[in-house]
Amino acid sequence: MAKKILITGATGNVGKRTIQSLIQKNGEFEVLAGVRNVQSKDDILLLPKIQAIHFDFEDEKSIHAALEQANILFLLRPPQLSDVKKYFEPLIRVAKEKNIQHIVFLSVQGAETSSMIPHHKIEKIIEESGINYTFLRPAYFMQNITTTLKKNLVENDTIFLPAGNAKFTLIDLEDVGEVAAYVLENSSDHINKSYDLTNNEQLTFQQMADVLTQQLGRKIQFKSPNLLSFYCKKRKEKTPPMFILVMIMLHYLPRFKSTPPTANWIEKITGKKPRSFEEFVKMNKALLVSFQ
Q1: In what order do the strands lie in the sheet with 202-203?
Q2: Nearest alpha carbon to residue 174 among 53, 272, 288
């Protein structure tokens, strides 16, 4: 049976990079790009060998129709969907009914012990379904520097987060997409495995600011406010309250936990060393010069 891989979140940061890596492999498989709007002009949907199909986590009919066409599922959780019982229990049940052979789920590092986060609950549902799975558990995305943290960094030369001296493990999404493509192409080699995806660094935000200072040629400060100051500043910037809470969970709570370990799964799976934070900044200097 020909392998048909359905990529959910196909036009998102990880979905795009996964599709690009898959296409470069020229393997014996079809790539189905799951999107809410199949008429989208997103560049990723215009690539050769990509078939855009309707997939909407909030539309059960689209889920049934999309899973009918696939046998391998790359599953990402949209950030706004935290109700696991409402959205993911039915999805995994349909995947079982449609005879999906393997689910590759983009989780997060530490999900196996963080019972309060949606990723932990989704992992458990997948395990209990009996469907073959692979859990990819990436560390802190370097791309946060060029997206959610970019405006303050470019306009004020500042990283403003309540992270204190907590150390973070890091990963470039390019490396995540490449690992995902390897696992999807060779899914039988990764049955019921879990992989932490990190580079070889454990850095504080002060250390990240120092790298940015060196590479950008201007002083980048790291300021660690208390929670009230952080919340008030973000509300003045019109950041939605739920997103502020996510930022607090991501950056404040690590202060009270041990530093996550690094892992060498990226090199083991792809044969390449993961990108360092300094290399990432060098490659993305242009994005950190002005805010557009």
Answers
A1: 140-141, 168-171, 202-203
A2: 272
Residue 128: phi, psi to the nearest 5?
A: -70, -20
Task: Give the pLDDT confidence of 239-291 residue by residue, as tens digits.
Answer: 888 889 889 988 999 999 999 999 999 999 999 999 999 999 999 999 998 65
* b/e sequence 28-52, b meaning 16+ C-beta within 10 Å: ebbbbbbbeeeeeeeebbeeeebeb
Average pLDDT of the chain? 92
Please report the DSSP string for 217-255 in residue order: TS--EEE---HHHHHHHHHHTT--HHHHHHHHHHHTGGG
Domain ranges for the chain: 3-138, 143-168+200-259+275-288
CATH superfamily ID and name for 3-138 = NAD(P)-binding Rossmann-like Domain (3.40.50.720)
Structure tokens at 58: 């909030």
Enumerate the β-bridge partners of residue 158: 221
Beta strands in 9-143 (DSSP E): 29-35, 50-54, 72-75, 102-106, 132-138, 140-141
Q: Name which of 204, 174, 200 is nearest 262 in CA terms.
A: 200
What pTM did the predictor assign?
0.91
Three-state DSSP at 65 gives: helix
Structure tokens at 206: 């002060």
Tell me the helices (H) and strands (E) count for the chain, helix number first: 11, 12
* Burial of residue 181 (number of CB atoms within 10 Å: 0-12, 13-18, 19+): buried
**Cα separation values, 251 from 101, 140, 254, Å:** 36, 10, 6
Contact 168, 251 (CB under 8 A): no
CATH number for 143-168+200-259+275-288: choose from 3.40.50.1820, 1.10.287.1080, 3.20.20.150, 3.90.25.10.
3.90.25.10
